[in-house]
């Protein structure tokens, strides 16, 4: 005969933990990951400026941290083009910036839109979208200019947040005008101001749109599987792009 266990209870009757509209765990601080990302970006910037003082107010090369790739005149390769042991730059390049203005503008945009997306998706999904967008942006940078590129900044990930926010507004049936205007405004700046890497912005935006669609339009019955599959697919695209460009440069 079955007996009740102390402190137990019928699991079927236990209420499920509250979730966000798209399956994430509902938490008290809906901006924790956004705050952590800002803190990491600021900390890396301070560490980089301490190690490379010349980068203050400049977009100069920051040693081993930036999204750097080059094929030298003698045929040797450096940075991402040198092979897998340098591919970490696709990630580290997302957290270094070329000056206070560069850092401040990116972090302001992240603080403005990040918490909205984080509260809708939940912490883990939001973080995955941010990172995969930044990686996709840097992958496009490498694909277009792998023989000679030196890029840095969180802009690819920020544009991914822009794209996913547009998907969120659409899914919530909110007016799309403000977020579309924001995206268009930033794209105009991207293609108008010298020195801004359009490749990271476009790649991040596309990844944010695609990942956002996969996360916010996944069928409820197997939502987690579809969401995880979307992220894995985007990571596979990033790896494929890097492999293709590396093969081209070594061919």
Q: What would you note in describing this structure?
A:
This protein has 251 residues and is mainly alpha-helical. It has a single domain, classed as Up-down Bundle (Rhomboid-like fold), CATH 1.20.1540. The protein is built from 8 helices and 3 strands, in the order αββαααβαααα. The chain has a 3-stranded antiparallel sheet with strand order 2-1-3. α1 (32-51) runs antiparallel to α3 (100-121), α5 (155-171) runs antiparallel to α6 (177-192) and α7 packs antiparallel against α8. The longest helix is centred in the last third of the chain and has 28 residues, at 223-250. The radius of gyration is 20 Å and the shape is globular.
The average pLDDT value, as a whole number, equals 88
CATH topology: Rhomboid-like fold
% residues in beta strands: under 5%
Can you tell me the overall shape?
globular
* Proper CATH architecture: Up-down Bundle
The CATH superfamily appears as: Rhomboid-like
The biggest beta sheet is recorded as: 3 strands, antiparallel
Widest sheet, order of strands = 2-1-3
Distance separating the two termini = 72 Å
Structure classification: mainly alpha
Q: Got a strand count? A: 3
- Cα-atom Rg, whole angstroms? 20 Å
Number of domains: 1
> Which percent bin holds the helix content?
55-70%
Question: Regions with pLDDT < 50 over 5+ consecutive residues?
Answer: 1-5, 7-11, 55-61
CATH class: Mainly Alpha
Count of helices? 8
Order of helices and strands: HEEHHHEHHHH
